[in-house]
Every structure is written in C-alpha cells, then in structure tokens.
Amino acid sequence: MNIDKTKKYEGYVWMSDKEKPDVLRDELLKVDFSTIENPFVIEAQLFDKESLTSYSVKFIDGEYHIMEFKLEEKDLLEPIHFVPKSRLDTKSGKVKNLKFKQLWKVLEEGDPLCEGMKTKVPTALVFIGFDFYNKEEE
C-alpha cells in the first residue's frame, strides 16, 4: 500500500536520523514508503481531513507496515488526548495534544465471563490530528 502524496496531511513523520519528528499541518507528504533508503521513516501518523482517512506507518524488520483506517464524521467526536513528551514545532505553532480515537468491535459470540452477553473489545487506536497552542498559551 502506498499513501497518496498529492493530498495534504496533519500528523508527523519521524526519520531515523532525527531526534524529533517532523510535524505536518495540512502539508503534502514528502516521503515515499514504496522504497527504503537511509535515512528511513521509523514511524508516521498521518490524517487526511478531507477523506477522513488515517494512516499509521511503522518500520519493522526492514519493511514498512502501513495501516489505513477509513473513519466517519462521528469518529472525530470525543477523542482521546495524549500530551507529547516535548513540544513539537510546526511552521505555524506548537502541538498541545495528539488526538486519537479508540475503535471498538462487538463480539457477536458473546463473552463467557459476562454471562454470554455481547461485549465490545478495543480494536485500534487511530490518529486523528493535533490540538495546537494558540498564541496566548505558548
């Protein structure tokens, strides 16, 4: 799977030769995941607001593993916020929080520990963008 480089993304790309990730704020993707070169991408989390598609990229054992998640508008409600270890700079501000959405799946066969009732189990934690500091908060 390759990620469309003609679309604009919010997210980050962490290169193997950098101490911090490069933060994208509605920017075109400059890396290519179809070839492996040095420096390579260790990890990337990208969100296309237009198509509501999230990509999670990890470099494992010499190859890129790309997960694609198609979301709906309702999936953007009530995100889980994570505070980055250090402030991540963009050209237009600093990242306050990373936003993720927990996706769930219903176990149709029922859970034996819950009297056989159908239960939900977490399936993926999906990146859906950032919260940025405004000028007063920086």
How would you characterize the overall build of this protein?
The structure is a single chain. With 138 residues, the chain is mainly beta. The chain has strands at residues 8-15, 22-28, 41-48, 53-60, 63-70, 80-82, 89-90, 93-107, 119-132. The strands form two sheets. Strands 2-1-3-4-5 form a five-stranded antiparallel sheet, with no helix packed on it. A hairpin with a 2-residue loop joins strand 4 and strand 5 (63-70). The termini are far apart.
pLDDT < 50 stretches: none
Distance between the termini: 38 Å
What's the β-strand tally?
9
Helix proportion of residues, in percent? Answer: under 10%
Compact summary:
This protein is mainly β and 138 residues long.
Topology:
Layout: E1 8-15, E2 22-28, E3 41-48, E4 53-60, E5 63-70, E6 80-82, E7 89-90, E8 93-107, E9 119-132
Antiparallel strand pairs: 1-2, 1-3, 3-4, 4-5, 6-8, 7-8, 8-9
List keywords for this structure.
138 residues; 5-stranded antiparallel sheet; 4-stranded antiparallel sheet; mainly beta
